[in-house]
Amino acid sequence: xxxRQEVDSNAQIANLLTTASMIQRKEYGVTSISxxxxxxxxxxxxxxxxxCRAIRLIDVPWxxxxxxxxxxxxxxxxxxxxxxxxxxxxxxIDEHDTRIWRVLSYYIPEARSKEDCSQVKVVGVDExxxxxxxxxxxxxxxxxxxxxxxxxEGKDANAxxxxxxxxxxxxxxxxxxxxxxxxxSPAFISSITEQFPGSSLTFDKFHVMKMLNESSGSSxxxxxxx
Length: 226
Known about the structure:
By secondary structure, the chain is of the alpha/beta class. The chain folds into two domains: about 20-110, no CATH class; about 120-210, 2-Layer Sandwich (Nucleotidyltransferase, domain 5), CATH 3.30.420.10. Helix content is about 45%, strand content about 25%. The protein contains seven helices and eight strands, in the order αβββαααβββαβαβα. It has a five-stranded mixed beta sheet with strand order 6-5-4-7-8. Strands 1-2-3 form a three-stranded antiparallel beta sheet. Helix 2 (about 70-80) packs across helix 4 (about 95-110), helix 3 packs across helix 4 (about 95-110) and helix 5 (about 155-170) packs parallel to helix 6 (about 185-195). The chain is elongated, with a radius of gyration of 28 Å. About 15% of the residues are buried. Residues about 1-15 and about 15-20 have low confidence and may be disordered.
């Protein structure tokens, strides 16, 4: 019995030593805002997974698995992406924008899952063109905290109902919204009135002034022709 245990123990040790001795060279991008990109090279051990029996690289403490960036590099990308387009971030750190999007696609859903909208009371909404051929997105902003709450495709009534669902998924409530600020889009007006009946509706001054200027210009032109 003792001999069998010793044999099994020795076999396990030998197995660990054999699999851990298989080294793979990995390259990780590190923080750099200079003209030359910087990388670190590490010899990462491989080991055998006891569940699936596959050979896998061990997890390293300075990077996420199968990413190629250090955690510090991830942090830099997130900070830059808050203040500039992804293409500009890619140019600064000398990487392809696809790799930047992969980092954002990992962290943004995780951060969104922790969002708390229970204190949101004043919301502003506006649409903007995101590409050619009249593709629009709608942005919803907490006007008290100057923070983007939600972004979705389209600029119709469905955007308002989509925002309400997302708000309620993050501890918010339509009854807590005291005021909505938007342009004079009929689709926004009707949907806000329906989805948030307890909130007041304010038109932003930019669109009000634009309508006044257009009205004044057309009146002046009619007066000149007469």
